[in-house]
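Anyone able to model this chain together with guanine?
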Amino acid sequence: MKLLDGKATAAQIQAELKEAVQARKTAGQKIPHLAAILVGNDGGSVSYVTSKVKACEAIGFESTLIRYDETVPEDILLEKVQRLNEDRSIDGFIVQLPLPKHIDELKITQAIDPKKDVDGFHPRNLGNMILNLPGFLPATPAGIMELLRRNNIETEGKNCVILGRSNIVGTPLSIMLARNTNPGNCTVTLAHSKTKNIKALCREADILIAAIGKPNFVTADMVKDGAVIIDVGTTRVEDSTRERGWRLVGDVKFDEVAEKTSYISPVPGGVGPMTIASLMMNTLKAMELKSK
Ligand code: GUN
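re: yes, here you go
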């Protein structure tokens, strides 16, 4: 078993980005600027956005964090999105999801200028992705593709099972892995809550990607010998032995599954840092495209 070390791979990418920023500074060019909108105080969202801002600082990007109370009306948020669209100093921005129930996420996502949509959630960017046209790829699936690429994982002709059909992970990833690219060229099965015989299906997977948010869902009896396992789950579970009172648990029962695999990504330190790294890559790209 080899660890798919997202933390180390993301550190490599961050070092490359830091160099690119340094080169721009030396040439007197603009530094990429990412803005993030965070609504409410959900613990997971607060720590994701904090990590994104910290990554900007580490690389040398400028960043702006905009926070709203849980009760912010939808039209105020739409107005802010519009102002960020028009703000020449901002190269890209994200609205952290999920949003409170009274706000229509799709309406907000559609209001973002596709050229600044560094999360790749706008329908135009998702459409471009399907047609393999230039655009922004959603950060988590793009991070997984980069993790596979940089660790030389062979994907061509492999049987890939993805658990979970979310708009931000499972659905876009199923398209990216099936494309005629490297990584890619997989035969993909997108499994979900209505899928029958899920255990048997997983046992057929050369590459198994779990993105359902159910802690320890994937057990050793669901895994083929030598499979590649990517764990996208990040559920907070109570843990009184930790000072902060919780720990992150993935969708895969790592301790019993790891020994059967050829490669496995851990939680934490797997997909999470790669998501942030691909958001940073998209931000640099947004700025470069703007100056063309
Ligand atoms: N919520 C969970 N993952 C993401 C992400 O990649 N971007 C945003 N904006 N919200 C998320």
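Residues 94-97, 119, 139-140, 168, 275 surround guanine (CB under 6 Å).
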